[in-house]
Amino acid sequence: MTSFNKKFISYLDNYDSSFNLTIDKLEIIKSLIQDNYYYNKVYTIDNYPISTIKQPPQRLPSIPEVPASIITPRLSPRLSSPRKRTLKIHTDVSLNYDTWMENHEVELNTPTEKKKVVIETNVSNIEDLLKIIEENEYSNDCEYNIDLKGLHNIKNELYSLQKMIGMTELKTTIIHQLLYFIQRLHISSTGSDFKHTVIYGPPGTGKTEVAKIIGNMYSKLGILEKSIFKKVTRSDLIAGYLGQTAIKTNNVIKDCLGGVLFIDEAYSLADADKNSSDSYSKECIDTLCEALSDHKEKLMVIIAGYKKELDETFFRVNKGMDSRFIWRFTIDSYDYKELKSIFEKLMEQQEWFWYDNENELEKLSWFERKKDTFVFFGRDMESLFTYVKISHGKRIYGKEEQYKKKITMDDLDAGYSIFLKNKEVKQIKPFGLQMMYM
């Protein structure tokens, strides 16, 4: 059955005023033209059903013989939008109305009620949300008790978040935030809540990737208007002389309206010294603080860094900042098993493998012994993998193809030696120093 859109803009052409049938008697035309129609060659009345229009009757061919070879909606040369349709009646051939209806399976103007579907929801983590998506296909013909279409729109982002190694607490907190916003609970008659977010964690733990996932999700859900994600540092916001910093900061904010502004290492915007009078930093942070309120419906600002440093710098300069960042996520440090998983994920992405005879327990033990030197976690795993590949290339030079891209423990040890030299890590760092930038 061909179903026509009942709410398109239509017109009747090739009209002959000598015809003696009023439009409200020609049911097939009446079924296709609901909200608009033309009269006197181009009939147009907006926003009223035909039955309520108080106009002189327009004469059309009488039933059962309708001088029409075809009645079909098609794109109008007069209407630029493809959503607007035309209805033409050609008067060259007589066609019995009933016969035409039999040959053209047209669905008349009968309203259809959407099927109501209730999905069981018991969401406590990201796996529960993905299970709902996997078990329930979205259909336009159904009305759901949750925003199932929205969940399907962000399916890829949810999978990307799930695949990130570790971060159990952070993933759960993000899901709580998502459930709040996807139900539009943040919107009221007086405005909407702040979306601004802090991600606490050491370098190399995936803060930028997490921020991008959050931004993409809220863009696809319509919570943010645009898919903008802009990562900035101090040099992008602070100018070389007073008066220009506010202008520079405001320009960055304008570029991000509708999307996400991400400030990594946000404590670099201010000095930790309470006696310091860095006017440039204060001008930047004060300007940013004002924008957080003025554009809270259109802007999401995400900052990242260590909690202690952010409290002593970024939040110290302007006390109003703290209350505007109502969402706080924490990325914990990786343990040795997670570091090994990150390393192996890099191998998989670049199609490298472990040598067949390498022992799993031996590899785990290796990462456990070395973990305290990997103070930048994921970033250090990227560096280590690069050095291991270099060492591997030296070892297998001139050997058969079957040995290539298969890492041995010797490759791992040799790559680690290069890593230590380049990172200048002379000894295992005490635990306290792991939480500080070098």
From TrEMBL:
AAA+ ATPase domain: which residues? 193-339
Alphabetically sorted, this entry's keywords are: ATP-binding, Nucleotide-binding
* The keyword Ribonucleoprotein appears for this protein: no
**Which SMART domains does the record associate with it?**
AAA
Q: Provide any one GO MF term from the record.
A: ATP binding
Q: Matching InterPro entries, A to Z?
A: AAA+_ATPase, ATPase_AAA_core, CbxX/CfxQ, CbxX/CfxQ_RuBisCO_ESX, P-loop_NTPase
**Family to which the UniProt record says this protein belongs:** Belongs to the CbxX/CfxQ family.
Please state what the protein is called: AAA+ ATPase domain-containing protein
